[in-house]
Amino acid sequence: MRNKIVATVAAAGVGAALLASPAVAAEQPPVAPSVAGAAKVASVLKPGQGLKPGHYLRSHNRKYVLAMQTDGNLVLYKGKTPLWASNTGRHKGAFALMQTDGNLVVYKGRTPLWASNTGGQRGAFLAVQDDSNLVIYKGRTALWSRYMYVGALPSGMLLKGGQYVRSPNSKYRLVMQTDGNLVLYTGKSTALWSTVTGRHPGAFVIMQTDGNLVVYKGRTALWSSRTQGKGAFLAVQNDGNVVIYKGHKALWSRHG
Question: Residue 58 burial by CB count (10 A; 0-12/13-18/19+): exposed, middle or buried?
Fold first, then answer.
């Protein structure tokens, strides 16, 4: 099986579409975000606050910076090293908004480009932590982090070892393990399905822009969904099924 690696990103992004659109915004976006005076150097983005192009958040220990770049990409850095990105570059003038409904969204004008898919959690806020993590909290409950996608793995995005896609109801996790196996779990340790690609440390999985979900070790394909459909995405559903969709059409599922 020969598959071309496409749309590999320097830093894995986080969640977009649940079942259709590439980003989900649960409330009307403003024309531009309201940014508190200290927001560009604080470690927290509160409900209703945003980051305009060129503004940033910084961890308390000053080691990590979340920058809303002028090219439209929202990027977490350690020094000059990118750790995570929304992969929304080439959208000059885009901004990030921590909506009051709990959803973190990158907008270009009124068009959502990327979302954390954490809407329905009023009062949630974004924190840039001293441990290099980027987390959305509701109180003390973590709703999202830079290591996870919520609901779906969008077209062109990948999971490295230790990253995962979580179902919206938090009952299921599709984990790219550090041993190279892609595994669906329920609870803490009950495995429901896997690609059986263990013993390949360093492997990753990518939802290619051609619609094929592939587990790679370097440039060698270890497993593939054998699907085609430009813009297709992978969904981890509340019923425990893992499905590749092209729009609303199912191309593949773990149940065959």
Answer: middle
CATH of 151-253, picked from 1.10.10.10, 2.90.10.10, 3.50.50.60, 3.90.550.10, is 2.90.10.10
Its pTM surpasses 0.90: no
If residue 6 lies in a helix (H) or strand (E), which one and from where to where? none
Q: How far is CA 145 from the centre of its chain?
A: 8
Residue 135 near residue 203 (C-beta atoms within 8 A): no
Q: Does domain 44-145 have CATH number 2.90.10.10?
A: yes
C-alpha–C-alpha distance, residues 46 and 102, integer Å: 10
User: For the segment 207-229, what is each residue's pLDDT rounded down to a tens digit?
Assistant: 999 999 999 999 999 999 999 99
- Give the Cα separation of 252 and 212 in Å (integer): 10
Distance CA 6, CA 215 (A): 12
Amino acid letter, 178: T
Return the domain boundaries, the chain: 44-145, 151-253
